[in-house]
Amino acid sequence: MPLRIPDKLPAIDILMRENIFVMNNSRATSQDIRPLKIVVLNLMPLKITTETDLIRLLSNTPLQIEVSFMKLKSHTPKNTPIEHMMSFYEDFDVMRNQKFDGMIVTGAPVEHLPFEEVTYWEELTEIFSWARTHVTSTLYICWAAQAGLYYHYGIHKYPLDGKMFGVFKHKPELPLLPIFRGFDEYFNMPHSRHTEVKREDILKNEALTLVAESDFSGVGMVMARNGREIFILGHLEYAPNTLDTEFKRDWGKRDDVSVPLNYYPNNDPTQPPMVTWRAHANLLFSNWINYYVYQETPYNVNDIK
């Protein structure tokens, strides 16, 4: 089944050229199907790119999904046209009385700041609390995963000596979990971050389960509340060229930029990137939608609690 997304969202044309079947609201309303309601709190600077990346992965399911986009009232994006934000995003205040089957909270380029110094921290933590009673399962990505672990469970983040930048091999620690159904013994995941959470801090907290990690990049995925909260420390949603774009943007302009590891053949940035995570990314998002959202959410979305 296709995704149900707002009419004229830029991602529609991009994904249709990739032969991904999406359905706008006008057509979807003619089908007598109760779609899953997924809300995306998009904190990334390039909103349209992130929208497209996430919709591409959410499309890999036989279920009809209605995607909505949430924005913060306390933060105005600088890299996305205001017309786009007004057309496709709603403030949390407008959406707070709604309930959703699933939620995705993206990363944000604010990891250099203590959490409490992020200008929108108060509103963000209000949303984190709201999600526990208004969303069946929430997927936190990269900085949002660190922020969610800190707010809900007191897990601190720590600065790295150098940027964790590249594609790294991870091992599912509990391979029989539904989130890993169909996975191989190892899977690759891109990372692009300057901070980390410590393995020992996760293991000390009985409410948290470390479900995937890497010998090189450390904690990869953490789960809580039987999958109602899933924290992904990397970027499985990244498109093939995302790390390449970031590297070429910063190379020669910052002193903390190195070639992303395990990404270019022989680590040679003059070569086209190797895409080694796409199959597992599609599988993980499909498993999340099926086993942690669709199988767990009530038929009447307003019964979520």
UniProtKB/TrEMBL annotation:
Biological process terms in GO annotation: L-methionine biosynthetic process from homoserine via O-succinyl-L-homoserine and cystathionine
The organism's taxonomic lineage, starting at the top: Bacteria, Pseudomonadati, Bacteroidota, Bacteroidia, Bacteroidales
Protein's UniProt name: Homoserine O-acetyltransferase
Function: Transfers an acetyl group from acetyl-CoA to L-homoserine, forming acetyl-L-homoserine.
Active site: residue positions: C142 (acyl-thioester intermediate), H235 (proton acceptor), E237
Molecular function terms, GO-annotated: homoserine O-acetyltransferase activity; homoserine O-succinyltransferase activity
Organism: Hoylesella shahii DSM 15611 = JCM 12083
Catalytic reaction annotation: L-homoserine + acetyl-CoA = O-acetyl-L-homoserine + CoA
Annotated site residues (Important for acyl-CoA specificity) in this chain: E111
Site (Important for substrate specificity): S192
Record gene name: metAA
Binding site for substrate: K163, S192, R249
Family: Belongs to the MetA family.
Enzyme Commission numbers on file: 2.3.1.31
UniProt keyword Amino-acid biosynthesis, yes or no: yes
Gene3D superfamilies (UniProt xref): 3.40.50.880
Xref: HAMAP family: MetA_acyltransf
Subcellular location per the Swiss-Prot or TrEMBL entry: Cytoplasm
